Amino acid sequence: MTQSKGYALITGASSGIGAVYADRLARQGYDLMLVARNQQRLDQLAARLKVETQRDIQVVAADLNLPADLARIEQILLEDSRISLLVNNAGVGATASLLASDADKMDAMILLNVLALTRLAKAAATNFVAQGRGTLINIGSIVAVAPKLLNGVYAGTKAFVQAFSESLDHELSDKGVSVQVVLPGATATEFWDVAGLPVNNLPDTIVMSTENLVDAALAGLAQGEKVTIPSLPDSLDWDAYETARLALGPNLSHRSPAARYGIKAPV
């Protein structure tokens, strides 16, 4: 067994993207702390990876929508100096329109996708800065930049993840901590069943496997990408998008309204 790279804590680790991150990171030399609601799935994954990788793998059954469970994972991230990487993957989605959606489910989505992710990121970042090293991976979605594709509340939560991640990377870049946000397109996970649109209803040509997604995301991390869109063929398209966005900066705040509104500004 090779020397450990530290512990990677992965939320939403029992299936889908989180489970593949667990597999890949264990094979890269990380010990693991796997967090999800489903104890049985966590135990099965941990047992398999222990045999296949000989890494130390711990499981923590927790529902991040419950304040006590969220606080428990926060405390682990704050206090355990062995943790060197957080994969903030737990999340839930929706495909129905806002008017057709259940308000309580929208609240729960915001709580998990935004509040829980933010609190765990802050806890991990606090620990990482104290250690002078660490990596934070936040899992967003391409709906952050294409909000009309699915439910607007879901898109809003993922737009937050992108903006938060980029801001956090700017804040921490000189403190030895790197932040990556991953924006998956359609991916073959249970997300679609939970969201109400089984993945087999989507064209095969737009659906990426979880294995390919995670492998591409980790390759992007190794290449120093701050924003990784595994399905985007040409990274220059993202560069152009960012250049256009940044070009707005000097004109986003002025004393006078733009001339097109026909308002005479006070002297």
Keywords:
Rossmann fold, 267 residues, single chain, alpha/beta
Describe this structure in words.
- The longest helix is centred in the middle third of the chain and has 29 residues, at 103-131.
- The model has no long low-confidence stretch (mean pLDDT 94).
- This protein has one domain (7-237): NAD(P)-binding Rossmann-like Domain (Rossmann fold, 3-Layer(aba) Sandwich), CATH 3.40.50.
- The chain has helices at 16-27, 39-53, 67-79, 103-131, 152-172, 191-195, 210-222, 235-247, and strands at 7-11, 31-36, 57-61, 83-88, 134-139, 177-182, 227-228.
- The relative contact order is 0.11.
- It has a seven-stranded parallel β-sheet with strand order 3-2-1-4-5-6-7, with helices on both faces.
- The protein is globular and about 70 Å long.
- β1 (7-11), α1 and β2 (31-36) form a beta-alpha-beta unit.
- It has eight helices and seven strands, in the order βαβαβαβαβαβααβα.
- The chain is α/β, with parallel strands linked by helices and 267 residues long.
Global mean pLDDT: 94
Instruction: State the share of residues found in helices, binned by percent.
Output: 40-55%
Number of helices: 8
**Strand order within the widest beta sheet:** 3-2-1-4-5-6-7
Poorly predicted runs of 5 or more residues: none
Radius of gyration: 20 Å
Family: Belongs to the short-chain dehydrogenases/reductases (SDR) family.
InterPro entries: NAD(P)-bd_dom_sf, SDR_fam, VLCFA-Steroid_DH
Organism: Pseudomonas reactans
Pfam family, one: adh_short
